[in-house]
Structures are given as structure tokens and as C-alpha cells.
Amino acid sequence: MKVLVVGATGGSGRAAVEALAGRGHEVTAFARRASTVFGGRAGVRAVDGDATVPADVGRAVRGQDAVVVTLGISEHPLRVRLLGSSGTPLEVRSRGTAAVVAAMAEEGVRRLVVQSSYGVGESRDRLPLSSRLVLALLLRPQIADHERQERIVRDSGLAWTLVQPVYLTDGDEPAALSDTGDVAGMRVSRPAVGEVLADLAEAAGDSGRCVAVSGATARAGSPVPGPGPSSRGVGRTGSS
């Protein structure tokens, strides 16, 4: 299976690339400095490009079977809130995803998996009050762009799945998936999220679904749906 990961050099993007390559897929890692990170990595084709430039994205999408989008801003959110983003456009998620959707429609690629963030859309009301305040005061511009990104995905006409992870860490927390927005632990590891993104990229029949990804396991009596038997336990909320 040929899978493109857009935003491949962020934490979740790298994890998705490693998970997919580890399963034997032909992975294209797309980012501004993809060749610096993935050059020479077996099973991975590194493509340097800008996700907000349609021509760059179109070349990367051509010939793929599925696309995983993990776009985000790696700078500290307080700096972004006070001074703006210095290296990545603040609207990179929506602009990049719009370019991906247009290229997929042009190239006839149907399967799209997009990492968003828990706390976007309907899941916002499920957050603790303290987390809602952080989103409102510190992450408002990023959340607004996530909202635009999700609307683009939902209106794309593609076979899409949105993935909303809770606070991302570099630890080893396993993941629980939920179609209802219920979460267990409020932290989940990037490697585990990478496995979830790989699972969903493989789930060609999955479409029109928004999945919350949280840490630990589901609450007793609350089964956690997943895309298939390979689902495994898959900071800043949902940032790459």
C-alpha cells in the first residue's frame, strides 16, 4: 500500500511514518525538510515541499493509495499566542488540508486520515473547565484553524476519518479509541497515535468518522470501537 504522510517531521507524523514503514507499506514522507529527517530510511521516500503550495502537494499525492495529514505548529503555544508563528503559517492546518483535498480529488485518491485535536468541535464541551480555559486563552488561533480544517475534511467528499488525540507525550501511554468522544486518560503517546493513524490508513472502508484517542483503556462497561483487529493502544492537545 502506498501512503503519503503530510507533515511527516512533526512528532505524530514521524510516528505515523515509522508505524506504516514497519508494516511494510511504501511510505512517502512529505515536509519542508523531509529529506533531512528521513533521507536513507529504508521503505520511506522523502519529499521536500510546502503543504500550503498546491503544486508541491499535488506531486506528492500522485500515485498514492491513502493520505495521512499530521500538520501543526511545533513552536511553544505561548510564543505563538503572543508573537505569532515565526516559521510556519498559523493557518497551516487548514491551508495544507485544503491543498491535500484538492489534489486527492484531482488524482482520484480516496482514503484520507487527518489528525485534529481533542477539544475541537463537539468534543470541546467534554474537556475539564481548566482545559477549556487553556484553549480559549492560549490556543484560540490554533483551535480556530483546526475548526476550519475539520470543515474542509467533512465537506471533502472523500473517504475520511478525523482523529482527535488528547494531550500528546513522548511516553509509552497506550491508546483507547472512541466514536462517542468519551476518553479515559488525558495523555497519550505519540508512538501510540502513530499506530492508530496507520491502522486507519489501512481501513479503506472507513468513512465519515471522528475518533477520539485517549490514554490508558476504556472505562469499565464502555467498549472502545476501533478500525479493526490491528488497533492498538495508540503536551499539547492534538499538536504534532
Quick structural gist:
This protein is an alpha/beta fold and 240 residues long. The chain has helices at 11-22, 34-38, 54-61, 77-83, 92-107, 129-137, 140-154, 190-202, and strands at residues 2-6, 26-31, 44-48, 66-69, 111-115, 159-165, 167-169, 175-178, 187-189, 209-215.
* pLDDT < 50 runs, ≥5 residues: 218-237
Largest sheet: 8 strands, mixed
Secondary-structure arrangement, i.e. CATH architecture: 3-Layer(aba) Sandwich
Looking at how many chains there are and whether they match, the oligomeric state comes to single chain
Distance between the termini: 24 Å
Helix content: 25-40%
Instruction: Just give the CATH class.
Output: Alpha Beta
Kindly estimate the percentage of residues that lie in beta strands according to DSSP: 15-25%
Mean pLDDT: 84
Number of helices: 8
| CATH fold-level label | Rossmann fold
Number of domains: 1
Backbone CA Rg: 16 Å
CATH homologous superfamily classification: NAD(P)-binding Rossmann-like Domain
Topology overview:
Layout lengths: L1 E5 L4 H12 L3 E6 L2 H5 L5 E5 L5 H8 L4 E4 L7 H7 L8 H16 L3 E5 L13 H9 L2 H15 L4 E7 L1 E3 L5 E4 L8 E3 H13 L6 E7 L25
Parallel strand pairs: 1-2, 1-4, 2-3, 4-5, 5-6, 6-10, 7-9
Antiparallel strand pairs: 8-10
Helix pairs in contact: 1-8, 3-5, 5-7
